[in-house]
């Protein structure tokens, strides 16, 4: 079953167009990778899905409903959990408060988050601004999971982190996948991303230029679309 | 100068401070959380006082009047937030000041139109009439003590709301990243309306409580508004604890200054000059205190965000 279906998406920043026709979809219990070089429109696409940017063309459907143009809190309540680029934890709230502030009923509880990320439990009464980058990333993931989303969206969740911490984050993503969580991942480390992804979409200059299985993304294609 | 007199002045200062706290609490939340300077906050104070006086006169019950003051101020707050204030969150402070100043004029004229230019009077409810004996042989108005009690209750309640409840967490989260808390499924727009209405209701409560001590008239809110701004700047914008400490500090400084400074200067300058110099200095005293505090702590006593 298709959870999220994005077709022909067009978005603008003021007068300048950033997306010219983006297509991708995420199915139930599927891990989908959204790829592309810097500035190709991945974050813009995600923000357009969540209503943080109002798309001007194309369609966004989530569980069969047209969500393009809806207010972002309504979209999130339908079951999308965002782990945004740059983490954006609430610095003036404690770790625990960050987790429970927007929590919704479902299988994910504080106890389960604490077993996924034991470091968060150790720091539960600390303010988020005092956490390390890796801990903030875990907090941002935990915070999104606490809303019990049908679809989890991770935008650059391993960027700028020490290798050990990146491994912790990837381990958590693999565990979520094993539990059947549907995930849309944006990440630049192909070595870890490709093995975990069921399908891939590549964006170039605001358009989808490739879609297929990870093994169809040949080294030549990787070089053409993702190489530096 | 007897101890009884000093205790009375201290309590007067405390009561004044508590009343300022009720005004400042809403102002500091609205400024701190939503980044909005609301000059019309004094209008809610006036609306509360008029609603209480009018309803108490019509029903014969101060308490129904008090309930009406909360309802009227909260309703006015909700209306204003939805119709005007919402459009101002993303604008700069000058636009906010202009628009909310216009609201003062609108509310004042509307009140004059409804109630006329003569002040209304509100009686202290019979259960709270009379005085209590204090140590040192003094007697103090029970009603003023009740105001102090109500202020303390509101302070505790608000502190609990902001620091312990999920609603409070969401308000604080919105303070640091409004877009993010919305992206997690929280209807931050409605939350802001609620916070604004709560702040308005507290200002209305202050107006109603003070209405029984002074006359209820158009323009009564603005002098209090200015003091409430002094309070939140001293306390640290956005901090409930800061608003409480700042309000009590301003209340005590102002009351005791007006009481003691003329006496003090009389000693040096003689009765005629001493009294006028003392009184002049007393009316400046809270601003001097504010300047001193800001010189050492530019963000106020309790800066809200760490
Ligand atoms: N706030 C903004 N205002 C104007 N233009 C923007 C804004 N944010 C992004 N853009 C432009 O939109 C295009 C797509 O940017 P976007 O952030 O979506 O790319 P991305 O694929 O997420 O890149 P990265 O890998 O660096 O995160 C870029 O050309 C960028 O310059
Ligand atoms: Mg990006």
From TrEMBL, chain A:
Entry-linked SUPFAM superfamilies: P-loop containing nucleoside triphosphate hydrolases
A molecular function GO annotation: ATP hydrolysis activity
Keywords: Amino-acid transport, ATP-binding, Nucleotide-binding, Transport
Domain ABC transporter: 4-228
InterPro entries given in the database record: AAA+_ATPase, ABC_transporter-like_ATP-bd, ABC_transporter-like_CS, BCAA_Transport_ATP-bd_LivF, P-loop_NTPase
SMART domains: AAA
CDD domains (alphabetical): ABC_TM1139_LivF_branched
Pfam families: ABC_tran (PF00005)
Signal peptide limits: none
Single Gene Ontology BP annotation: L-amino acid transport
Family from the record: Belongs to the ABC transporter superfamily.
Protein name: ABC transporter related protein
Organism name: Mesorhizobium alhagi CCNWXJ12-2
UniProtKB/TrEMBL annotation, chain B:
Keywords on record: Amino-acid transport, Cell membrane, Membrane, Transmembrane, Transmembrane helix, Transport
Predominant location: membrane
Species assigned in the record: Mesorhizobium alhagi CCNWXJ12-2
Family (UniProt): Belongs to the binding-protein-dependent transport system permease family. LivHM subfamily.
Protein name: Inner-membrane translocator
Membrane-protein topology: Multi-pass membrane protein
Keyword Membrane: yes
InterPro entries, per the entry: ABC_transp_permease, BCAA_transport_permease
